[in-house]
Amino acid sequence: MTEAVLRPFVWMDYRLALLLTVVLPLVFWIWAMVKQFDAIQRFMGMYWKVASLLAITVYLMIAALPIGFLTATLARLLLLVTLWFWVDINDDIHDMQPWRPLRMGFNAWRWAMTFYCALSAAFSLVFVRCAFLTQASVLGDSLCRVWIDAPWGYKTIFHRGATPGLLGFLGIVALVVYGAYFAYFLLVKLGRKGRSASGY
Q1: Could you tell me the residue range of the domain that residue 66 belongs to?
Q2: Over the stretch 129-167, which tens digit does the pLDDT of each residue have?
C-alpha cells in the first residue's frame, strides 16, 4: 500500500473519530442532562474516562512517539467494550419507551460506534508495527508518518507555541495516570462492582 492510497483512509478515520467519539457523545450527554435521564448521563461520564485514551494518543502522536500506535488500537478496543459493558445501564435504557428520540438516537450511535471501533481497530492493527520502530524511524516511514499529520494539524490550531516534545511528555504523564486508574479498575473496582455502573 502506498502513501497516496493510504492517506484518504487515514483522514476518513480521523474525521469519523471526531464525529463519533467526540461530537455525537457531547450531543447525547447534553441531551441526557436536559432530559434528566440518569442512565445515559452515567454512561457518558464513564465513556469520557475511557475515551480520554484517544486524546492521550493525539498528544503521543504529536511527538511521534511509537507507543501512540499501540494506544490508538487499544483505545478503540476499550471503547468497543464499554459501549455495552454496563448491565444496569443497558437495562435502564431498554426500559425507556422505545419511541423516545433520545433512546433511538443513543442506540443508533452505540451501534454506529460498535461498527466504527471494530473496523478502525482492525485497520489500525495493520500499522502496529510502527509501535516497534524508533521515533526517527516513525518520522522516516511514509506509511507511519501519515498517521501523524492530523495530530500535527491539531497542534497547529490549539498548541501553536508548544514544542512536540513537551506535548509528548504531557501525553506520557497522562498515559501513566490512565494506566494506574485502569489497573485499579481491573484489580479492585471490577471485583467489587462487576458490570454494574452504580458507584463508578
Answers
A1: 3-193
A2: 999 999 999 999 999 999 999 999 999 999 999 999 999
Q: What is the pLDDT of residues 64-82, one digit of tens each?
A: 999 999 999 999 999 999 9
In a domain, 199, yes or no: no
Query: CB of 138 within 8 A of CB of 148?
Result: yes
The cell for 133 is 520502530
Q: What is the pLDDT of residues 23-56, one digit of tens each?
A: 999 999 999 999 988 999 999 999 999 999 999 9
- 10 Å CB burial of residue 97 (0-12, 13-18, 19+) is exposed
Is residue 200, in this structure, part of any structural domain at all? no
Q: How far apart are CA 178 and CA 171, in angstroms?
A: 10
**17 burial class (0-12, 13-18, 19+ CB within 10 angstroms)?**
buried
Distances (CA, A) of 110 to 70, 115, 122, 144, 153: 23, 9, 18, 29, 28
| Burial environment of residue 105 by CB neighbours within 10 A (0 to 12, 13 to 18, 19 or more) | middle
Q: In the numeric block, which cell numbers belong to residue 187?
A: 484489580
Model-level pTM?
A: 0.92
pLDDT of res. 199? 57
Q: Identify whether 198 is part of a domain.
A: no
Question: Total domain count for the chain?
Answer: 1
Assigned C-alpha cell, 190: 471490577
DSSP secondary structure string, 108-167?
A: HHHHHHHHHHHHHHHHHHTTGGGGGS-HHHHHH-HHHHHHHHHHHHHHHHH-TTS-HHHH
